[in-house]
DNA sequence: CTGTATCCAGGGGGATACTG
DNA sequence: CAGTATCCCCCTGGATACAG
């Protein structure tokens, strides 16, 4: 019952090894746009259109929104619905697995905003102690 | 009681706004090296030396390990201890706030490794359906 | 051992223009 | 509206050499 640094058992994935696919995946999950897009879809609670998402995620470019949504869809985290209308209408929503992930990422987001002030203070102390 | 996309109340931080400092912080927290270094320190359970950390986090360069540790220390998430010895000895450990964060990030890591296979399968299905 | 300093290639990602 | 296609700059981050 020896454990790798990641605590993964045998036959599992371990992001602490550079060759493991979970490392790249973890990197993707941590990507700012990934986190915010998933969070936006989660917050919305209903299928969102391309433009709606871009409005919720301030500053995201069409390129990155496209890339992010495409990757999320490919990974089975987001469901894409296309309607044969004119003008075209496309919506995105979290898959069950995506919603599960959203809950995890939401904790990270909550932790970040919840401790932001502490961190800001810590930085100030550090900068003062280390000569700006 | 209106809510921003991030669900943050007034006076709080909201990473969905590009100007909010929490966005940059969230980006830092999601960074691969940040996640793995914190995870490594958490797993270790005791203060770790520079070299020990680099061994746990496969593939990290001295530059990035230094940068990451420095940033974590500045943010009050990691405590650095320096001993006046020869050869020099320095150890790092999570601060109480850092340990709190570690628990959150650990869930993300666990989610990633726990769903890696599902994602791998989803990708294969997607690629087949969309012509490789 | 624990970093720091520099160089530099590669890729991420913004801005912009254009299409079905 | 929902993207796609390019250009292209910048900045990340690896490699390397060196210092305390």
TrEMBL record, chains A, B:
Cross-referenced InterPro entries: HTH_HxlR, WH-like_DNA-bd_sf, WH_DNA-bd_sf
Gene Ontology MF terms in the entry: DNA binding
PROSITE patterns in the cross-refs: HTH_HXLR
Keywords: DNA-binding, Transcription, Transcription regulation
PANTHER family in the cross-refs: HTH-TYPE TRANSCRIPTIONAL REGULATOR YODB, TRANSCRIPTIONAL REGULATOR, MARR FAMILY
Coiled coil: none
Source superkingdom: Bacteria
A family per Pfam: HxlR
Protein name: Helix-turn-helix, HxlR type
Signal peptide start and end residues: none
């Amino acid at each position: 019952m020896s454990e790798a640094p990641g605590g993964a058992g045998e036959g599992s994935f371990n992001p602490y090894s550079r060759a493991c696919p979970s490392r790249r995946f973890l990197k993707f999950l941590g990507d700012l746009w990934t986190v915010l897009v998933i969070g936006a879809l989660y917050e919305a609670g209903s299928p969102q259109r391309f433009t709606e998402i871009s409005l919720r995620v301030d500053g995201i470019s069409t390129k990155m929104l496209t890339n992010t949504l495409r990757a999320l869809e490919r990974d089975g985290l987001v469901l894409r619905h296309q309607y044969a209308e004119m003008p075209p209408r496309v919506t995105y929503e979290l898959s069950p697995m995506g919603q599960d992930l959203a809950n995890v990422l939401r904790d990270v987001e909550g932790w970040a905003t919840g401790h932001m002030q502490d961190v800001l203070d810590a930085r100030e102390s550090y900068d003062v102690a280390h000569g700006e």
